[in-house]
From TrEMBL:
SUPFAM superfamilies to which the protein is assigned, alphabetical: Aminoacid dehydrogenase-like, N-terminal domain (SSF53223), NAD(P)-binding Rossmann-fold domains (SSF51735)
Any one of the GO BP annotations: L-glutamate catabolic process
Keywords from the UniProt entry: NAD, Nucleotide-binding, Oxidoreductase
Protein name: Glutamate dehydrogenase
Catalytic residue positions: K104
The Glutamate/phenylalanine/leucine/valine/L-tryptophan dehydrogenase C-terminal domain, residue ranges: 181-424
Site annotation Important for catalysis: residues: D144
Length: 426
């Protein structure tokens, strides 16, 4: 039976808890969320019928600050996937050393099957269920898979109506002009690239001579691909994507002159590339898992959890030197063992993809000040925080002779435990 995401998150935590010799009390507290919300959302569809949707919000730990984390709309969402993502958000905020805790939300739905008006009613319904338990000082949702800045704008508006005051800081990832921050769109993908840059400097690799293969072509993967070329001067050779028409995944590849901005221009809001236009421009369409076996220097899994596992980890090319986890939980523990044995330098998810939550934090700060920074200032501040986070984890890995994932957990868990101690919880 496959390991579910929450079991995977707990297994990763337990491994480092043993290394840190955490007390049974602290361990039990951190293995589980502090609070969970399960609820039904009735939505009147355009046809006039009322459908009931299952919604969730999990608040894992708020010792370091308000819970923070995205809202995912996906047909295969489960409470365990939300628990896992909330747990990873706690570690992500802690490793980036921003004053927030971990949370995550979800609705079991395929958003591509809904009209815009149905999506608006659904997200407003989610807020109606949760508004007493979210807020700028409690829990701050954000976009994730299947949700958009516009949907965050609707949610902020609904919360403001219910509370009777304009409260932009209740939600981040909002549209620019509606309380959103410049730089938020690029933040997660560029953050992946900033951490890759630091890893390459550590490994003494010339970034301009490297090649990367990317899984996914949603927001994170798009800007990781763009940043890989613009910031590092390296070459991307492929991305994978989910084709909504075929209901299947493919890899789109081109050995030379791969142009992520062109592909972005023929991609819909759900990351589905127009296959015919790609082929016309000289791109090859390959199998879904072709990205994994490419002869590249860097692999960037930037789709969903559990994508590198015991069944396919052996397909990773001997040329791969860095795996940068743009997605949350893309590597299972048994695949981790193989990656560690092969000496591939791993950039763990909650370090590598923490650029999004970092700029979400900046958005909250700007909302509080009612003063907004230019894009270059936002991205410079993000780069500064992620570079510091990378070196804190690298220093821990080198001093403790630890795998980078374990080192990231050591840094994050120690910071959360310290906050719990200072607050008198333990």
């Amino acid at each position: 039976m496959a390991l579910n995401p929450f079991q995977m998150a707990q297994q990763q935590f337990d491994h480092v808890a043993d290394m840190l010799k955490l007390s049974p009390t602290v361990r039990e507290f951190l293995r589980w969320p502090q609070r969970e919300f399960h609820f039904h959302i009735p939505v009147r569809m355009d046809s006039g019928e009322v459908r009931i949707f299952q919604g969730y919000r999990v608040q894992h730990n708020d010792a370091r600050g308000p819970n923070k984390g995205g809202l995912r709309f996906h047909p295969s969402e489960t409470i365990d996937s939300v628990r896992a993502l909330a747990t990873w958000m706690t570690w992500k905020c802690a490793v980036a050393d921003i004053p927030l805790g971990g949370g995550k939300g979800g609705v079991i739905v395929d958003p591509s099957t809904l009209s815009n008006s149905e999506k608006e009613r659904l997200v407003r319904g989610w807020v109606q269920q949760m508004w007493k338990n979210i807020g700028p000082r409690q829990d701050v949702p954000a976009p994730d898979v299947g949700t958009t800045p516009q949907m965050m704008g609707w949610m902020m508006d609904e919360y403001s109506k219910l509370t009777g005051q304009y409260t932009p800081g209740v939600i981040t990832g909002k549209p620019v002009g509606g309380g959103g921050s410049l730089g938020r769109t690029e933040a997660t993908g560029f953050g992946v690239v900033y951490t890759i840059r630091e890893a390459m400097q550590h490994l003494k690799l010339e970034s301009g001579k490297t090649r990367a293969a990317i899984q996914g072509f949603g927001n994170v993967a798009q800007y990781a691909a763009i940043g890989y070329k613009q910031i590092l001067g390296g070459n991307v050779v492929c991305v994978s994507y989910w084709d909504r028409d075929d209901r299947a995944s493919y890899t789109v590849s081109k050995e030379k002159d791969f142009d992520p901005q062109f592909l972005q221009s023929i991609t819909d809001q759900y990351g589905s590339i127009n296959k015919a236009k790609a082929v016309e421009a000289g791109y090859q369409i390959e199998s879904a898992d072709a990205w994994l076996s490419k002869d590249v220097d860097v692999l960037i899994p930037a789709a969903l959890e559990g994508q590198i596992n015991a069944q396919n980890v052996a397909e990773i090319s001997k040329t791969v030197k860095i795996i940068a986890e743009g997605a949350n939980g893309p590597t299972t523990p048994d695949a981790d063992t193989v990656i560690r044995e092969r000496g591939i330098f791993l950039l763990p998810d909650f370090l590598c993809n923490s650029g999004g939550v970092t700029v979400s934090y900046f958005e909250s700060v700007q909302n509080d000040m009612n003063y907004y920074w230019p894009k270059n200032e936002v991205l410079e501040k993000e780069d500064h925080i992620l570079t510091g986070a990378f070196h804190a984890v690298l220093d821990m890995a080198l001093s403790e002779n630890a795998y980078m994932r374990d080192a990231a957990y050591m840094v994050a868990i120690a910071r959360v435990v310290k906050a719990m101690q200072l607050r008198g919880w333990i």
